[in-house]
Amino acid sequence: MEHDHLIACHECDALFQKPRLGRRRTARCPRCGAILYGSASGRLEGITAMTMAALITFLIAQGFPIVELETNGITSQTSLIGAIVALWNEDMQIVAVMVLCSTFLFPLTELTALLYLLIPIRAGIVPPGFNQVLRAIQFVRPWGMIEVFMLGVLVTIVKMVSLARVIPEAAMFAFGALTLMFVVVVTFDPRTLWDVAESLGVLEARRERHAREGEGDDGDADQAGRDTGKPGVDGPAAPHQG
């Protein structure tokens, strides 16, 4: 077996020959049942659109207040960044940093990194730093906790209803929509992009090799054309029998 067509299970380290998958198919390890990789065919367009929509919704959620509290004629609003600043000013710097990373920094990094990879790959181009960006996505993904933050906000609202009038603002609905979008984004396994990038690299190498071979055979092809009275054009290749 060629080493380029081998894959190791990340759970039990079993080594298998890597077959080409059909549309929306996944390969599982027969020893432990872990998912080895999946087919990205037909999914790149949908996941790119969903990631773009999630990024726009994320920016809306950060730029508007989450809730408005009104009690005894006094009104106050707060956003995610305002809540983080309040935690910092209350001498809870560790909590503030954790909230900043899990609800702002890591989700933003995942969305922007996914778009950085998906948009060029859909155009048939492997972007610079592909390996490093893909590893960064796999690193930050477990630490993004938008859904946990949303659950905490809902619990807080339920408790505050008895004390003040709670008015949901635009960021509340944006975070709700963002939670659902992240469910879709997280279902996309970024490891499938390795296969897409590998296939693009193979195609590019074939084009370069054919171009070099074509330049070397120009003289022979022209001579063959003069000898036979026909252009020196190769016929269509016979279909490969798998």
Low-confidence stretches: 219-242
What is the number of beta strands?
7
What series of H and E elements makes up the topology? Answer: EEEEHEEHHHHEHHH
- In spatial order, strands of the major sheet run 6-5-7
Q: What is the compact description of this entry?
A:
The protein is mainly alpha-helical.
Description:
This protein has 242 residues and is mainly alpha-helical. The chain has two domains: 1-39, no CATH class; 43-200. Helix content is 58%, strand content 11%. It is built from eight helices and seven strands. The strands form three sheets. A three-stranded antiparallel sheet has the order 6-5-7. Helix 3 packs across helix 4 (130-140). The radius of gyration is 27 Å and the shape is elongated. Mean pLDDT is 76; it is low at 219-242.
List keywords for this structure.
disordered C terminus; Paraquat-inducible protein A; 7 strands; transmembrane helix; mainly alpha; 242 residues; membrane; single chain; three-stranded antiparallel beta sheet; two-stranded antiparallel sheet; PqiA-like
